Amino acid sequence: MAEIKLDSLIKSYGPDQVLHHVHADIEDGEFVVIVGPSGCGKSTLLRMIAGLEGITSGEVSIGGKVVNGLEPADRDIAMVFQNYALYPHMSVRQNMAYGLKIRGLPKAEIDRRVQEAAEILEIGAFLDRKPRQLSGGQRQRVAMGRAIVRDPQVFLFDEPLSNLDAKLRVQMRLEIRKLQKRLGVTSIFVTHDQVEAMTLGDRLMVLNGGVVEQFGTPIELYDRPETVFVAGFIGSPAMNFLPATAEGGVVTLDNGASLPGAGGVSGPVTFGVRPEHLVPDAQGPIRVQVQVFEALGANTLVHGVLEGTGTELVVSLPGHETPAPGDVLHYAAPSEHHHLFDAESGARIAP
Ligand SMILES: Nc1ncnc2c1ncn2[C@@H]1O[C@H](COP(=O)(O)OP(=O)(O)OP(=O)(O)O)[C@@H](O)[C@H]1O
Ligand SMILES: [Mg+2]
Predict the structure, then answer these.
(1) Whole-angstrom Cα distance, residue 72 to residue 74?
(2) Where in the chain is the domain with CATH 3.40.50.300?
(3) Which of 10, 12, 43 best tests ligand 1's pocket when mutated (most atoms within 8 Å of CB)?
(4) Which of 11, 62, 86, 154 could form a disulfide with 19 if both were Cys (CB 3.0 to 4.6 A apart)?
């Protein structure tokens, strides 16, 4: 069993604290994605779990054992990096076998493991090539292969797909997902890409400025973001946020438009609603003045402002409808899709 427990992890570089009391209980076989903007501490957290970075305070446990004092090699993990870190002078086969050779495994066992990983990853045809003779996607597979042959308790991935083109990324992320489910190895995957995070993770840890904003399943984060940050980060196009006041079961927007559905809340709020949840409605209270649009084929994304204010928002039109700049579109926002956040702290207050 290799569940991973992070208990109140803190990381400081000199006077700068870059991770603040990170907690997580990751189950055996689970695929967890750490996601957040550049500089939020994702790689630092992953490297602390790997043992490549010191722990200022707190504990990391793997399989029920505290590993703070263990060298990376003794933690029974395999890490896949963004740049793959393959040895250029070695063949694919040698790259995959190297770590096992160092550990003194018998040659027959090494050959067996390399062969098996090559079959899983479909790289058997180029085992004798050098990394420079491979495409980016093939190199990525070799890096995966090197992790698999070690048969570790845990896989750690730090943005392993970011050097690939968009199409290959989508293909590889699906392969990684399938592979992880097939092998059942507890995995932690770091990315700044929220779509990648949503599609890969059983659960997502959203990090912002070294603080865990929320840890939950993709659908939990989408349906019930606990903060404005998570609400704006998860989902594409991003959620709309409108300054508003709640009072007596009604939300009143800055331009005076009012919508039923404030629950028991009163006072200044940030009203959130996703573009895909706004419904075209001639009587709808949300009036959007069109600025520009993006025709995507299946739908058209319209960027505009809430009429009479400078507050920007995005709405979606079905099919090929294309509005003109200056047009005013009317929308309703069904109350089951409302999100109310504290105007100051950004914390969710309703529903
Ligand atoms: N060795 C170091 N010394 C001082 N500060 C560091 C060091 N390494 C990282 N940091 C700081 O710690 C913070 C977190 O860095 P980290 O590399 O973990 O971010 P990240 O979320 O992985 O970002 P990215 O998405 O750009 O890779 C950053 O503010 C960074 O400047
Ligand atoms: Mg990083």
Answers:
(1) 5
(2) 4-231
(3) 43
(4) 11
